[in-house]
Amino acid sequence: MEIQFKATKRVEQGTGASRRLRRxxxxxxxxxxxxxxxxxxxxxxxxxFHLLKKEATHASVLAIDVEGxxxxxxxxxxxxHPWKQQVLxxxxxxxxxxxxxxxxxxxxxxxxxxxxxxxxxxxxxxxxVNELDVQCLPANLPEFIEVDLKDLEADxxxxxxxxxxxxxxxxxxxxxxxxxxVTVLKTKGAAEEEGAEGAEGTEA
Length: 204
Fold this sequence. Notes:
Layout: E1 3-9, H1 15-23, E2 26-33, E3 36-44, H2 45-52, E4 62-66, E5 69-80, E6 87-94, E7 101-110, H3 116-119, E8 124-127, E9 131-136, E10 145-148, E11 157-159, E12 170-171, E13 180-185, H4 188-203
Parallel strand pairs: 1-4, 2-6, 7-10
Antiparallel strand pairs: 1-3, 2-3, 4-5, 5-6, 7-9, 8-13, 9-12, 11-13
């Protein structure tokens, strides 16, 4: 489901104008990119505040209706007040259906509770990486990438190379080697039980 919201053109700019907008329950922002001039906009704070709580807002192509003119964008930057629950400014980048975009996409870990690592060995699953840098055409952008843990054993980890990517999605450079995405930590109880079994074996 497409995420969309409304905005109006912003004529007054500068610190004073932005402060007045915020006092009136508005959020200043800017839309840039795709070879067009940057456009200053203003949006309803409450609407954007609730949208920003949704994970999909940060990894989806969004539709902004700027006084009747529809623009497709991705969210590039959000500035928050240092201590208040207040959005200060938003940056959006226009997207072109024919050009690949680069964005961070969250990982969703599923079936951890039924994996042998947890169910049989009493381990605790640790998510080492929670999002990935990907590149794809806007139409192929996934809201998230699923990591299935149903076969994960106590002494195993899942590496980046084992991840199945959606069609048309490429990974951007993620450092050297093959990073670990998920690993299993032994809980205190499981470690003590293993130690006890080892001691019994030695006595025998």
